[in-house]
Amino acid sequence: MFEPSGKVKITINGDKTIEVDGGSTLLNTAASLYRHAYEKTKPNNEREPGYQERDYERLVNRMRGMEYRFDAEVDKGIFLFRLNRYRDVDSKDRRVIFSSALKLDEPYNVTIAEVDGMYSYPSDLLDMTKRIALLDASLEELNSSSDPFIMLARDMFDEGMEREKKNKARSSLQQKNKSIYIRALREFYKSQNKDIYADANGTLRVTFGNVMGVELNDGVYYKPFTTLEGIAEKNTGVSPFEVDVKQLKLINDKNYGSYKSKAIGSVPVNYISNLDIYYETSTTTINARGEFVGLAFDGMLETIISDYKFIPETRTIHVDSRYLLWTLEVFEEDTRLIKEMKIVK
User: Fold this and answer.
1) Which domain covers residue 39, as residue numbers?
2) Which of left, alpha, beta for 128 (phi over 0: left; psi -120 to 50: alpha)?
3) Which of 137, 153, 341, 345 is the most buried (most CB within 10 A)?
4) How many distinct structural domains can be found in the chain?
């Protein structure tokens, strides 16, 4: 389904799920504005959470926040990339209105032209003051809008609401079954004279550890760091191991910028540590001085069992902050964000 969050998600034959994260920020914003206008037609206590009077300030802040994190060309590029992936899904499994409006069953250049047209429209969504003012627009006013993003949000609305209704029913059943499971789990732990683990969802979690390699099999040692040269070595020319030609040249020319680590003789790309994280969690990694040194984004497949039972060999994978900076400055040749940072070397 295509949700206001910008996520295209489809399940095929009940077992295969294709999920495409990220979409058009402008379409997501239009969808939120349209939903807000719809909810305003109800008494406040009957509105969905997130669209009640108490949520108005949060919605205003969301509209204001786009001013600092939105770029139309980047947004369009991401949207087209995701749409091209979604085109690979069988047409019978896609959102009908969404696919039709964006011409996903036609040649890709037709979809590109459609999206180009949407982004070239002088949308009020691009102006912070006008964007915030749209929160006070009525459903009738939005229905008469000629803004392509608002029009698409309007056309998708009924279908989205029907899917939301089904999802709520499914979620309710899952919650009921979860309650039965938790009750049985509590009884089991009680019989073992143990306490059940507390639910840590929504809480701040901090874990401590060290960067270190690991030997999982006899004679097979995983080093703590990977390097730029490793990217070139893994290049197959085929996705997902297809390396940009410009990046390959920079690596072959040993163009490290100012991010070379003397200890390893290259720019560090990823590193592993014994920090304990949940494998689907991406989080900031800081050193002992509180400085940002990377992002934890995955765990080693060989030790994934530690999701259920911790083992000392478990390693978390982080992308090194030096590689992030190298990508911005050397590969992308864009120092706008870097100029806003204090780089510690």
Assistant:
1) 8-170
2) alpha
3) 153
4) 2
Per-residue confidence (pLDDT) for residue 15, from 0 to 100: 40
List helix spans (H) across 122-263.
128-133, 139-143, 148-191, 228-234, 245-252
The long-range contacts involving 202-210, CB below 8 angstroms and separated by at least 24 positions, are 207/275, 207/276, 207/277, 208/275, 209/273, 209/274, 209/275, 209/276, 209/316, 210/273, 210/274
Q: In what order do the strands lie in the sheet with 225-227?
A: 225-227, 268-273, 316-320, 292-299, 283-286
Residue 13 has pLDDT above 60, yes or no: no
Q: What token pair was written down for 45?
A: 């206590």
According to the model, what pLDDT value does residue 43 have?
Answer: 95
- Other C-beta atoms within 10 Å of 230: how many? 15
| Domain-located, residue 2 | no
pTM, two decimal places: 0.61
pLDDT of 123 higher than 80: yes
Which residues does residue 2 pair with via DSSP β-bridges, in sequence order? 8
Residue 45 backbone phi and psi in degrees, to 5: -75, -10
Whether 243 has a pLDDT exceeding 90, the answer reads yes
C-beta separation of 19 from 8 below 8 A: yes
Q: For residue 139, what are the CA distances in angstroms to 5, 97, 130, 192?
A: 21, 20, 16, 58
DSSP 200-217: -TTS-------B--EEEE
237 with 306, same domain? yes
Question: What tens digit of pLDDT does each residue of 176-224 get?
Answer: 998 999 899 899 989 999 888 777 777 777 888 999 999 988 888 999 9
Rounded to an integer, what distance in angstroms lies between the CA atom of residue 327 and that of residue 246?
11
Q: What is the arithmetic mean of pLDDT over 86-101? A: 90
